[in-house]
Amino acid sequence: MNWGHIDRYAKSLIKEAGHLIRVSFYKQIDVETKADANDLVTNIDREVERFFISRIKRDFPTHRILGEEGFGDDVQSLEGVIWMLDPIDGTMNFVHQKRNFAISLGIYADGVGMLGYIYDVMGDDFYYAVKGEGAYLNHERLPQLEITPLSDAIIGINASWVAPNRHIDNEKVIEMVKACRGTRSYGSAAIELAHVSTGRLDAYVSMRLSPWDIAGGIVIAQEVGAVATNLKGEAPGLLGQEPFIVARPGLHRELLTNYIQLKQ
Ligand code: IPD
Ligand code: CA
Ligand code: CA
Questions:
Q1: What angle do CA 11, 12, 18 make, to 5 degrees?
Q2: What does the buried/exposed string (b/e) look like for 250-263 if buried means 16 or more CB atoms within 10 Å of the residue's CB?
Q3: What is d(CA 211, CA 228) in angstroms, rounded to the nearest whole number?
Q4: Among residues 44, 134, 168, 233, which one has the fewest Cβ atoms lying within 10 Å of its Cβ?
């Protein structure tokens, strides 16, 4: 497999898709809801996913595509090459703020993340990595993450997980919020993974993420030494929704051991 070729191809496709999204602000944006009233999708999410799929199917006909909007393949196993795509991660931000959303893409071979991309479209910040070759923001190589104590850490977490919920013990999460330096929530899992990879956040945790939210970000985060797992400490399954944590080395174990505990 010529990963260098696929890498150059994917970067140029993502930049083209970013342009499509930016010009979409001059068009009509139709907003619909999906699973619930706050789960938004627009005609632009769908157009961008179709754009990716038509190109990938034309140029890499043996590869499969797992896309959020469902225009790709019905992926039930991780065999072969799979493009895991979220055409707009942070659709609520796209609709309400017109910023703070990203294109998220991970390209996996037999379950191993080979290439990862997060493109913050309005910030024009492009995060990318090739497995084993380091991670980059635009043209700058990102340094390896160092160990930070929880008392100096900023944790990316949505307030839903601090309130009582059916997934984790929120009393422990409240203890974590008190023990850390501060918390942030950006509304795009991909952008939060990018922030962990650059050290702007020290950890990010969420209870319900899908493969397309995290596939690209995991490749980038692992290249700088971050640890990305489900809440049992296992590698993310990437075939369905799962709780997810990514953090600096050391902090990952501390958060899982002392603060982020699944309800039985
Ligand atoms: C959502 C965002 C959000 C996360 C949700 C995701 P979408 O993706 O990443 O930050 O909390 O779980 O579903 O729907 O905007 O692509
Ligand atoms: Ca998403
Ligand atoms: Ca999306």
A1: 90
A2: bbbebbbeebbbee
A3: 13
A4: 233
Rounded distance from Cα 240 to ligand 1 centre (Å): 14
Residue with CA nearest ligand 1 atom 12: 209
Phi, psi at 68, each rounded to 5°: -60, -40
Q: Whole-model pTM?
A: 0.97
Q: What share of the chain is helix, strand, coil (3-state, %, to 5)?
A: 35, 25, 40
Mutate to test the pocket of ligand 1, among 98, 209, 212 (most ligand atoms within 8 A of CB): 209
The CA 90 to ligand 2 mean position distance, Å, reads 6
37: CA distance to ligand 2 center in Å? Answer: 16
| Cα–Cα distance measured from residue 72 to residue 80, given in angstroms and rounded to the nearest whole number | 15
CA distance 31 to 166: 29
Query: Per-residue confidence of the chain (264 residues) as pLDDT tens digits?
Result: 899 999 999 999 999 999 999 999 988 999 999 999 999 899 999 999 999 999 999 999 999 999 999 999 999 999 999 999 999 999 999 999 999 999 999 999 999 999 999 999 999 999 999 999 999 999 999 999 999 999 999 999 999 999 999 999 999 999 999 999 999 999 999 999 999 999 999 999 999 999 999 999 999 999 999 999 999 999 999 999 999 999 999 999 999 999 999 987
Across the chain, how many H-helices and E-strands are there?
Answer: 7, 14
